[in-house]
Amino acid sequence: MVDTDHFLLTARYVVSMDEEGTLYSPGYVAIQGSRIKSLGLVDDAPDEGKRIDYGNAAIIPGLINSHTHAAMTLLRGVADDLALDDWLENHIWPLEAKFLSPEFVRAGTKLAAIEMLKGGTTLFADMYFFEDEVAAAAKDVGIRVLIGEGILAFPTVSAKEPGKVFDHIRNQAEKYRDDEFVRVHIAAHSTYATSEDQLGKCVGLSEELNLPIKIHCAESRKEVQESIEKHDRSQVAYLNDLGLLDTQIRLVHMVWPQDGDWDLLKRDNVSVVSCPQSNLKLGAGIPPIARYLDEGIRVSLGTDGAASNNNLDMWEEMRLAAFLVKGTSLDPTKLPARQALRMVTIDAARIWGMDEGLGSLEPGKKADMVVVDLNKPHTTPTYDIYSTLVYAASAADVSDVFVAGHRVVKEAKITTLDEESVLGEARDWAERIMQERGNV
Ligand SMILES: [Zn+2]
């Protein structure tokens, strides 16, 4: 059973991540229904609700994974140590062609959702196929999702006719209009795998339905060079000429921005979603996050899919992003811990236009929060809670998670469904995939 009533949570730290960076220590959060009723110092806590004293712990907003392909958890570790194009064209796409189905997506997304929730991620932006299954799996597990039906120029298993995908997205936008857990965005794959005609249609659909667009961009140096050869301009300039920069577009990766790109990104206030672990693992390069921040370009973080990461751990992304910024700029004062935590909480919520209800702990906002246990050797002592959270803590320190007031993780266990059966189903898929690879 999921607890959904009226809670009063207390802990040594309540890290609000509000605009002023208010920290309550020791603090409380009162939850009523799906929302935060009040928060503050423990001495001011109201005497109401089901009280849970977490003691030496921190209560923080739920983390936001701004880019992943959740169901690819079933392909975790199936092909590693390969270049991006080889990995994608000779391994991932052939396996997807063989195995992708609604059942595959449902099983893989459940696995991903459990992994993310147990690690404190309460919202993820997805890009894949059969996204209604992604929505259903996310709801089963109790995590929020921005679904993104992949838009590709060639027929896919979920869109046999590439043109039909737009009708499908339109239907999804209608279907999930008032859904507590599911929102829709437009997920164009890339400038090399999505056609010019489709990219143009993305602009119209984004304007018509007021939906954000997401696209992989400038991930590898090779794709940037190919764009220059084919279109005589960078991918960012190409997207600009097609009218996409003027929409609510978020560019995923942006490892290789070209000289002229900076002014375009700044002119249209374009946000970047960086996935540093995936970029490093695929040898794509080091994303210039330090320069994005210097130029005032908003950056959030994503894990990318589990086949190129190989986990969905936002703590690792946050820590790596902070270290990359410091290391590449030779300036350790850049991206201090609190700002790094902002990148995966309130700044990410803002990038997705969801900061009215998510991203920080404030009265009236959704009760999406994570309890981090500080009773561990590696989180002791704590002088500065932001330092502990960003530089020392890990996903394994998450003890409880609330989404819309539902206690979906309790004492490090998922409460919404039987985790073991989801793991068993994933292993069954892996068995079939292994057999297929053995036959090749
Ligand atoms: Zn991706």
Summarize this structure as a short list of keywords or feature phrases:
alpha/beta; TIM Barrel; Urease, subunit C, domain 1; 37% helix; binds zinc ion; 2 domains; 6-stranded parallel β-sheet; globular; 440 residues
Q: Can you describe what's shown?
A:
The chain has 15 helices and 21 strands. With 440 residues, it is α/β, with parallel strands linked by helices. Strand 19 and strand 20 form a beta hairpin. The model has no long low-confidence stretch (mean pLDDT 95). It has two domains: 104 residues, Urease, subunit C, domain 1 (Roll); 289 residues, TIM Barrel, CATH 3.20.20.140.
Chart the SSEs and their pairings.
Elements: E1 7-11, E2 13-15, E3 23-24, E4 27-32, E5 35-41, E6 50-53, E7 57-61, E8 63-68, H1 84-99, H2 102-118, E9 121-126, H3 131-141, E10 144-147, E11 150-151, H4 165-175, E12 182-184, E13 186-190, H5 196-209, E14 213-217, H6 221-231, H7 235-241, E15 249-253, H8 261-267, E16 271-274, H9 276-281, H10 289-294, E17 299-301, H11 314-329, H12 337-343, H13 346-351, E18 369-373, H14 385-392, E19 398-403, E20 406-410, E21 413-414, H15 419-439
Parallel strand pairs: 1-6, 2-7, 8-9, 9-10, 10-12, 11-13, 13-14, 14-15, 15-16, 16-17
Antiparallel strand pairs: 1-4, 2-3, 4-5, 7-18, 18-19, 19-20, 20-21
The protein binds zinc ion.
